[in-house]
Specification:
The complex is a heterodimer.
Chain A (H helix, E strand, L loop, with lengths): L3 E7 L2 H13 L4 E5 L2 E7 L1 E5 H8 L12 E5 L1 E4 L3 E5 L2
Antiparallel strand pairs in A: 1-3, 1-5, 2-3, 4-7, 6-7
Helix pairs in contact in A: 1-2
Chain B lengths: L17 H7 L7 H6 L40 H24 L8 H11 L2 H18 L3 H28 L5 H12 L4 H11 L4 H21 L1 H7 L4 H31 L1 H30 L3 H18 L11
Classes of the chains: A alpha+beta, B mainly alpha.
Chain lengths: 89, 334
């Protein structure tokens, strides 16, 4: 079985948009709502695309801004201008 | 004694207001933009005499089944609007402070400085008129989605008028002399009279959507590309980099505002063939006027190349309308 990666985000305006983008871009991702936060699990690899978050927020979103919304994550991280990816090596 | 601490998750019974839930479903937490704009305006009360005629969809020839399809891609509500505009103001302030501190204006040839003042400063009066027009759209428009965005745009225009005034103070070495001279030009100089007549004629247009097309699509579609394109390049011949720094926000603002105006025109044109015809009619009517208004100014700045610059800007604007499906491509040839 592929080990799941996960990311937990605050339930804020930016957080909601990121969650929505993740669920749209990663068909296997599952979202688990908690009070004030949302945990997303996804087998193997999970990608957060800057353009899909930007589209939902209505402004340019830089993947580095993820740190303003993230509570916790598990997995290795690979980050560039367009994508913030979480995966297991 | 053992105490077990256990987190109890209480799921809210609803995530948003009923009027938002009716559009987007109950389970989805709505964004602030959605909550602040969709279906906020009363649709039943305050409509007809002998009550108050505050809201009436018949104030424009544009007919929409649903007036909430004019989604602003920038998703401006009070907070996001202010955050975005504070950043714009900051970048303008930084540019002007830099120019002021280094006294960069002194390095521009005097004729270049005069020419820059001659085309830029009277535009603050045009911006003030644009503010009035946006507020009329906010006042007479139908549906919060377009009226709130128009009110924000109106505030933008006042801000731009102030920003131009600040440049005017700088050009007048801290006095109002350059601004006074610009007002005299606006009121009396021949080159500005077609523009002033157009601004005044627009102030009495009562179909608010026609005004939207006349001001935000057509007139802005001529002035902004010229100011940040051909006029700016003409300034470069006089070592006008300092001016480019101070006016670069005009291009940024216009690109930002166009995202909204594109979305509005596209949605109105997609609604019906009748809307498309009306939009096309307004576009043609006001394009003639706008062209007539900018030609003398372009000739003043660019000399013999002015007409070609205006034609190029007009062609780009037309292409943009065709791209939004508001004009037929074949009309381009005509």
């Amino acid at each position: 079985m592929t080990k799941p990666v996960s990311i937990t985000l605050q339930n804020t305006q930016d957080g909601f948009a990121i969650v929505e983008a993740i669920l749209a871009d990663n068909p296997e991702a599952k979202s688990n709502p908690f009070p004030a936060m949302t945990k997303i699990d996804c087998p193997g690899r999970l990608e957060i695309r800057a353009d899909s978050v930007s589209e939902r927020l209505g402004r340019d979103w830089d993947p580095q801004e993820i740190h303003l919304s993230v509570i916790s994550l598990s997995g290795s991280v690979d980050e560039d201008d367009g994508v913030f990816a979480i995966f297991w090596r | 004694m053992n105490i077990d601490l256990k987190a109890e998750a209480i799921t809210p019974r609803r995530h948003t207001f009923s009027h938002i839930a009716r559009r987007f479903g109950v389970d989805k937490p709505a964004s602030r933009y959605e909550e602040a704009t969709y279906d906020v305006q009363p649709m039943v009360n305050f409509h007809y005499s002998p009550q108050f005629e505050l809201y009436d969809p018949r104030r424009t020839r544009i007919v929409m089944n649903d007036w909430y399809v004019f989604r602003d891609p920038r998703q401006f509500y009070y907070a996001s609007y202010n955050i975005s505009r504070a950043a714009m103001q900051q970048s303008f302030d930084d540019a002007v402070n830099f120019v002021e501190k280094r006294d960069l204006i002194a390095s521009v040839a005097p004729e270049g400085r005069d020419l820059f003042a001659a085309w830029l400063l009277p535009l603050r009066h045009v911006e003030w008129a644009a503010n009035m027009n946006c507020q009329l759209i906010a006042d007479w428009g139908y549906g919060t989605q377009i009226t709130s965005a128009a009110a924000f745009c109106g505030a933008d225009r006042l801000g731009i008028a102030q920003v131009i005034s600040r440049i005017g103070l700088l050009l007048g070495q801290g006095t109002e002399s350059a601004l006074k001279e610009a007002k005299t030009q606006w009121l009396e100089a021949d080159v500005w009279q077609p523009m002033r007549r157009l601004a005044e004629d627009q102030l009495v247009v009562h179909d608010w959507f026609e005004l939207y097309v006349a001001q935000l699509i057509v007139l802005d579609g001529y002035i902004y590309p010229l100011a940040t394109g051909a006029f700016d390049r003409a300034g470069a011949a006089h070592n006008g980099a300092a001016f480019s720094m101070m006016t670069s926000f005009l291009g940024d603002w216009y690109a930002d505002n166009s995202r909204w105006t594109d979305a509005v025109i596209k949605a109105a044109a997609a609604e019906s063939e009748a809307n498309r015809i009306v939009l096309g009619e307004w576009f043609e009517r006001w394009s003639v006027r706008a062209e007539e208004a900018v030609r003398p100014i372009a000739a003043m700045v660019l000399g013999a190349e002015g007409d070609a610059a205006v034609d190029a800007v007009g062609a780009r604007l037309r292409e943009r309308m065709v791209g939004l499906n508001a004009l037929e491509a074949r009309e381009m040839a005509a």
